[in-house]
Amino acid sequence: MCRHIAYAGPPLALSELIVRPPHGLYRQSWAPRRQRHGTVNADGFGVGWYADGDPVPARYRRTGPIWADPNFADLARVVRAGALLAAVRDATEAGADGEAAAAPFASGRWLFSHNGAVRDWPRSAAPLAAALPAQALLGLEARCDAAFVWALVLNRLTSGDEAGQAMADTVTELAAAAPGSRLNLLLTDGETITATAWGDTLWYLHSPGRSTVVASEPYDDDPYWREVPDRTLLAATRTDVLLTPLKEPQ
């Protein structure tokens, strides 16, 4: 269910991370190598990136498959960024929300993606919805589980939680309410990358002091890719990667 990638490092053309790698996100939209659930990610795509000196990212999102949008290939060739988050989507359920349901979701400096599915959606999430401010529910971009998961994370961020705590608490709360959910989350503010491995694959490629890539699966066969164990929180910058086990809900 979906594939995603985040990057922080020296400025690169978007295509260098998404289109040109032999097994990049572009190819993962129809031929992922390590996806455990679903086979084709053609229900929308999006990329968010940070321009020099601007803390608020730009976004480009569409409803169809990434390979069917020639405008994106042209854009990705010339736009450069030192940080990005991109995703291709395999929808949990058919819906009419269009590109609003495609990651990355955004608020202020944050970009977010959810690779997975909330089990028994939306019934299982009803008790958690009751704890959200009415404005957060009314402001949901889409009626899909990913948009709701983002609302939970964002509510914690705006309440003062640091990124790792917000992500970890959201995952354990959802796992308790909807056992069997797949909750691989990805969050960046252009400087840090925070991710969870919970029910699907997650990998990272780190060049100390230079760059970090976090992705659902490797985009090439570089031997320095490292797999993140399931039930793990990843917190990364350009210089460091920290892995912390996540506790199963009691």
Write structural notes for this entry:
This protein is α+β, with helices and mostly antiparallel strands. 22% of the residues lie in helices and 30% in strands. It has 7 helices and 13 strands. The chain has helices spanning 14-18, 25-28, 70-78, 126-129, 134-138, 145-158, 163-177; strands at residues 3-13, 45-49, 58-62, 80-88, 105-107, 110-117, 182-188, 193-197, 203-207, 211-215, 226-227, 232-236, 241-245. A 7-stranded antiparallel beta sheet has the order 3-2-4-1-10-9-11. Strands 5-6-7-8-12-13 form a 6-stranded antiparallel beta sheet, covered by helices on one side. Helix 6 crosses helix 7. It is globular and about 45 Å long.
Descriptive tags:
alpha+beta; 250 residues; globular; 7-stranded antiparallel beta sheet; 13 strands; 6-stranded antiparallel beta sheet; 7 helices
SSE diagram, text form:
Elements: E1 3-13, H1 14-18, H2 25-28, E2 45-49, E3 58-62, H3 70-78, E4 80-88, E5 105-107, E6 110-117, H4 126-129, H5 134-138, H6 145-158, H7 163-177, E7 182-188, E8 193-197, E9 203-207, E10 211-215, E11 226-227, E12 232-236, E13 241-245
Antiparallel strand pairs: 1-4, 1-10, 2-3, 2-4, 5-6, 6-7, 7-8, 8-12, 9-10, 9-11, 12-13
Helix pairs in contact: 6-7
